[in-house]
Amino acid sequence: MKQLKNILCSKIKTGTGYFPLLFSLATVFFITVTASGTNCTENDTVIINDGPYIYFDYDALKVKWIENNHLVEENLTIFNFDKIKNRFNLLNNFNDLFNAFLIPPVFRQSYRNVDSIALVSDVHGQYDIYTNLLKKNGIIDDNLSWKFGKGHLVVLGDVFDRGGKVTEIFWHLFGLEKQARKSGGRVHLLLGNHEVMILSQATSYIHNKYEKVENITGTDYYELYSANSVLGSWLRSKPVIASINDIIFVHGGLSVDVVKRKMKITKINRLYHEKIIGKDYSFIEQNDDLLLLTDEKGPLWYRGYFFDKNFEESRIDSILKFYKKKHIVVGHTVTREIVSLFDKKIIGCDAGIMYRKPGEMLIVKNGVFHRGLSNGKRIKL
Ligand code: ZN
Prior knowledge:
Elements: H1 4-14, H2 24-34, E1 50-57, E2 60-67, E3 70-75, H3 81-88, H4 94-99, E4 110-111, E5 116-120, H5 127-136, E6 152-155, H6 166-182, E7 186-189, H7 193-199, H8 208-217, H9 230-235, E8 241-244, E9 247-250, H10 256-260, H11 265-276, H12 281-284, H13 288-294, H14 304-307, H15 313-323, E10 327-334, E11 339-341, E12 346-350, E13 361-365, E14 368-372, E15 378-380
Parallel strand pairs: 4-8, 5-6, 6-7, 9-10, 10-12
Antiparallel strand pairs: 1-2, 2-3, 5-13, 8-9, 11-12, 13-14, 14-15
């Protein structure tokens, strides 16, 4: 039976058929000069440390990790949790591990009256770049704990794949989410196409470190994020689209095709959760809505704002009118820096962290958009 992973993989390999319109030369140059940074410099002699992977197995909570290339497995209880917590700098407590299995997905993702919003996108396993951006832009302190008060942090998808510190980022976000809520703020982790791929068993883009992790653990990478695992269960509760104030956040973008089918945010989140993630392609292909949501005009894959030379402002106006919002913020398509299209109706935020560039954050303060640089400087967009 053909799995969703096959179609997802073939799409990312062949789904760039649009002629680059706006950023073609800049992007091509950018990718050319940085491509050497896309592959890891690690070799077979490198020492692998990874984890923890915490999961239920026959009603017992277990933990496994890799220490100097060796697999360690233990039952996890309140008595040895602090050892694990300290070893991996976890921000959460023992009970949070159980709560991860109880979080209901919330399809209606609409937040209002938020003064401060910060966003990072497409971090792709680059933990050091990610933490530097959050520190320098005042989202976390030197201990990596929340210091953004009642602000909302959006992580706009594609934490998985390409880089070698994916596990570290997810555990940090898992703990940060709770700290933010305690302060009256929020962390919104939205799914990108790479999250949907891994949760649908498509692992073509994992860093070669994780191929070694598969060998050492004797486990397929996607199984480490199964619904029985803390992080896997937590990820399966996450939406693909959210709105804050007058801004829509979505990894790829919203196309006119999605609007023609009158797909509201709530419906898209529900369909992804109930009928797309982890489902067979033979199931998806029977339904036109599901096909659209998973193809190149779907919200996690769309690149039309940047690459469709026929894309006119009237199109984005009709899309914004349908959703009753003023801006759409996206990642997924790499640009040299955070960019505004059509006078901030579209804002592209994938500033090339996957190429180990210093990256940028989008900072929205009282409705004013800024680029937040890796040294903490802000430039009005
Ligand atoms: Zn993407």
